[in-house]
Design brief:
Blueprint (H helix, E strand, L loop, with lengths): L2 H11 L11 E5 L2 E4 L4 E4 L2 H4 L8 H13 L10 H14 L3 E5 L2 H20 L5 E5 L8 H6 L16 E4 L4 H7 L4 E6 L2 E2 L5 E2 L2 H14 L2 E6 L22 E4 L10 E5 L20 H13 L2 H19 L8 E5 L2 E5 L2 H13 L2 E2 L1 E3 L3 E4 L7 H15 L1
Helix pairs in contact: 3-9, 4-9, 10-12
Length: 392
């Protein structure tokens, strides 16, 4: 089908809930994609951080294929080796204690919220269930995670929302303190506000929040849906901040392209969710966990060091354009935001894509880059040439 033919059928049969770009993708190899009409693109999006090892990755494809022949799915009433293996790897490499598997980032954050509230209920009884999140945050699209999101534009249409959230300013410990009261059970935050504009939190602020949570027996909940699984140059971003969270959510890159989410709990709260308190049909299913094992086995220390190097190479190259259009480059590892004039951003993104490079946006002024962590030097250089042509 041509793009026009495919789009016509999409308009007829698919709910119009996305402002899609005028591109229909067909296949990929490495960090390169082709559309249905054969046009080639360097991908700096990786499916919004999902395809962390690129496309047609032999390790992931073989792991999925082998597991599909053995066992694709069983219920969580039974134990399977792939699930246990992923959990063991996550705990061993983070210092956290136990894992609950879900299917997406929003589900992982829902699980984290439930765990925090039950922790407080078990210890203090009713009335201590409020969670402080940060202004400009994003935590998901369910009714509860929309309310957890600290952006008013998401608090529309779907009333009544789940209550029990308040919002503090990022990098302002006094603002956080002002939101905490006798009803608070947790603080929940992204270490880099991805959808909010690729905004890293200050290390001092994060450590102050961690100390405050410990002092007041609040769970420190870190949303690593976008920053996790090597994206920022460590397996999880919190490992660069010198903290030990009580709960961490993750998803996106963990499956390398298949849907998976996870809630990881420290020994402070790893027994809170007992039998019957939380569940999901597809969480931890063998085929998906086989893919996650392939991802985690690939992302070793040497791989992570390369992510840091690639991120710095992209960042310094873009800053080196010497362009008035580039106001800054923010982020860590291969989670970067090119800051431009908000009024010019749409036209710049369109021009970049027209020239064969796929990018994202975030916040009001960021062109967001989330390339596959495995992107090659040649692919980076090809993308940089286009970015320089458009931005400089």
């Amino acid at each position: 089908m041509t793009y026009t033919e495919l789009k016509a059928e999409e308009n007829q049969y698919v709910m119009n809930t996305y402002g899609r770009f005028a591109i229909a993708l067909d296949h990929g190899e490495g960090s390169t994609l082709w559309d249905v009409e054969g046009k080639r693109y360097i991908d700096l999006t990786s499916g919004i951080g999902v395809c962390c090892l690129g496309y047609n990755n032999e390790t992931i494809v073989n792991a999925i294929t082998e597991q599909a022949h053995k066992l694709m799915h069983v219920s969580n009433l039974f134990t399977t080796a792939p699930m246990v293996s992923v959990a063991k790897a996550l705990c061993t490499r983070t210092g956290l204690s136990k894992v609950f598997f879900a299917n997406s980032g929003a589900e992982a954050n829902e699980g984290m919220i439930k765990l925090a509230r039950k922790y407080s209920y078990d210890k203090y009884g009713e009335g201590r269930a409020e969670i402080v999140t940060l202004n400009n945050s994003f935590h998901g699209r369910t009714v509860t995670t929309l309310k957890a999101t600290g952006q008013d534009k998401f608090h529309q249409y779907f009333f009544p929302f789940t209550e029990g959230f308040s919002y503090a300013d990022a990098n302002d410990i006094e603002s956080v303190k002002a939101q905490i009261n006798e009803h608070t059970c947790a603080v929940m935050m992204e270490l880099i506000q991805g959808e909010g504009g690729v905004l890293p939190l200050d290390t001092e602020f994060v450590q102050q929040v961690a100390a405050l949570c410990k002092e007041k027996d609040l769970l420190l909940c870190i949303d690593e849906v976008q920053t996790g699984v090597g994206r920022t140059g460590s397996l999880f971003c919190f490992q660069q901040y010198g903290i030990k969270p009580d709960v961490v959510s993750t998803a996106k890159g963990l499956g390398g392209g298949v849907p998976i989410g996870a809630v990881m709990a420290a020994d402070t709260c790893d027994t809170v969710l007992g039998p019957g308190t939380h569940a999901t049909t597809f969480g931890g299913t063998p085929m998906v966990c086989a893919a996650a094992n392939a991802v985690l086995n690939t992302i070793d220390d040497a791989f992570l060091a390369e992510v840091v190097e690639k991120g710095e190479y992209l960042k310094q190259s873009i800053l080196g354009f010497g362009s008035d259009k580039v106001r800054d480059v923010r982020g860590r590892g291969l989670m970067l935001g090119i800051i431009v004039d908000p009024d010019e951003r749409a036209a710049l993104v369109s021009a970049i894509m027209d020239k064969g490079v796929l990018v994202l946006t975030a916040g009001k002024d960021a062109i967001r880059l989330l390339p596959p962590l495995s992107i090659s030097k040649a692919e980076m250089d090809e993308a940089l040439a286009v970015l320089k042509d458009v931005l400089a």
